[in-house]
Amino acid sequence: MPTTKEGLQRLLDFFVYGMLRAAESLGNAPLFLRTVEEEGLRKFLLINFPKFQASENPKEACEAYTKSIDEGGLFVTTDTTFTGDSNTVHAEIGDLCPYRRVCTMRHDERHPVHCIRGFALAEMLRLRLEEDFDWKLERFGRPCRLTLSRTRWG
């Protein structure tokens, strides 16, 4: 176990990078990553359910989820902002994203950038609001910009 916050971050970087490469080798990276995020979020929501009371409004639910992650103390995501309405949420994710180093490595290596935060937010909305949301990384950079859009099935 890493003994410093920097060591923990490096362990996370290697884990996420390896997970992304494994997901791609299986042929359907988005499906694999969605499954991993769903499992982690179900555990998170089970443990934090009494404190995490997300609004029915997707923008407010994203803000509450991000705040709850920050209160957990593992990551700092205070440079993330959300705008939007009941159907679409726009997020700007700054330099404090715990996955930025991995995304930068993948971008520099000319691999697709799969935004782990995008997967997490879309899955959280699906689990909490019982509505499907698709996410799209609009721009990788400083800040990263992504859009979560309500999906109408049926």
Note the topology:
Layout: H1 5-25, H2 29-48, H3 58-72, E1 80-84, E2 88-93, H4 100-108, H5 116-129, E3 133-139, E4 144-150
Antiparallel strand pairs: 1-2, 2-4, 3-4
Helix pairs in contact: 1-2, 1-4, 2-5, 3-5
What would you note in describing this structure?
- With 154 residues, the protein is an alpha+beta fold.
- It has one domain (5-150): Muramoyl-pentapeptide Carboxypeptidase, domain 2.
- Helix content is 51%, strand content 16%.
- The chain has helices at 5-25, 29-48, 58-72, 100-108, 116-129; strands spanning 80-84, 88-93, 133-139, 144-150.
- It has a 4-stranded antiparallel sheet, covered by helices on one side.
- Helix 1 packs across helix 2 (29-48).
- The longest helix has 21 residues, at 5-25.
Average predicted local confidence, pLDDT: 81
For the termini, the CA-CA separation is: 47 Å
CATH class category = Alpha Beta
Spatial order of strands in the largest sheet: 1-2-4-3
Strand content: 15-25%
Q: Number of folding domains?
A: 1
Uncertain runs are none
CATH topology heading:
Muramoyl-pentapeptide Carboxypeptidase, domain 2
Total number of strands? 4
Cα-based radius of gyration, to the nearest Å: 15 Å
- Main sheet properties: 4 strands, antiparallel
The CATH architecture is 2-Layer Sandwich
Overall shape: globular
Kindly summarize this structure in a few lines.
This protein has five helices and four strands. It has 154 residues and is of the alpha+beta class. A four-stranded antiparallel sheet has the order 1-2-4-3, covered by helices on one side.
